[in-house]
Amino acid sequence: MDKPLDAAALAGWGVAVWGCAGHAAVLLDLLAHHGLHVRAFLDQQATEPLVPGVPLFAQEKAWLGWYQSLPPGDSVLYGVAAIGRQGGHRQRVQRFFESHGVAMPVLIHPHASVSPQARLGRGVQVLAGAVVAAKAHLGDMCIVNHRANVDHECVLEAGVTVAPGATLCGSVRVGEDAFIGAGATVLPRLSIGAGALVGAGAVVTRDVAPGAVVCGNPARPVKETHH
């Protein structure tokens, strides 16, 4: 994994934000803290930008035309995927931006705790009150949301979402694009399969198969998803 960009070192640079809904609003505060300026939004459903006067593009082609028209030396761009739940969509945003030379910085809230021994991939977001402990490894485009805990030696593959207040105990492994719901707890050394969904408040006491949806205490399968 390449060394990720640290947003704190990018003050003064411009950012393109993919998404214009609730998660984007949360990230605006974090971008401002790091001194990053939103230069454009890209969202197919929004009707107005979150920041007045900042251009909003509904189509990738329109955004790309704007980006390519910027004068040489313009302080743009870094990209942010402001899509709070769909890890697969965030990875698609990453591929789009990076294919046009737009890098994806790591965003860490000043009130989050991230161990210097943790490894964070490109585009990772760690929000207020979250904890990422020693030797945890977060793949590209993971989100650790408000007050969530990722304990020591956990491995999160690309596109994982850990919702507010969820806890991954030590040495948990979470597959690509899996979603851990708000307030859920995953006990130590378990495996959550790719594309799985752990429901809010669930307590996971055994491995979860890829694509499974589990809920309850103890968590039990509800149905299978297509991954």
List the helices and strands and how they pair.
Elements: E1 14-18, H1 22-33, E2 37-42, E3 56-57, H2 60-68, E4 76-81, H3 87-99, E5 107-108, E6 113-114, E7 119-120, E8 125-126, E9 131-132, E10 137-138, E11 143-144, E12 149-150, E13 155-156, E14 161-162, E15 167-168, E16 173-174, E17 179-180, E18 185-186, E19 191-192, E20 197-198, E21 203-204, E22 212-215, E23 220-224
Question: What would you note in describing this structure?
Answer:
- The chain is elongated, with a radius of gyration of 17 Å.
- It has 227 residues and is α/β, with parallel strands linked by helices.
- A hairpin with a 4-residue loop joins strand 22 (212-215) and strand 23 (220-224).
- The model has no long low-confidence stretch (mean pLDDT 91).
- It has helices at 22-33, 60-68, 87-99, and strands spanning 14-18, 37-42, 56-57, 76-81, 107-108, 113-114, 119-120, 125-126, 131-132, 137-138, 143-144, 149-150, 155-156, 161-162, 167-168, 173-174, 179-180, 185-186, 191-192, 197-198, 203-204, 212-215, 220-224.
- The strands form 4 sheets. The chain has an 8-stranded mixed β-sheet, with no helix packed on it. A 6-stranded parallel β-sheet has the order 6-9-12-15-18-21, with no helix packed on it.
- It folds into 2 domains: 7-105, Rossmann fold (3-Layer(aba) Sandwich); 108-215, UDP N-Acetylglucosamine Acyltransferase, domain 1 (3 Solenoid), CATH 2.160.10.10.
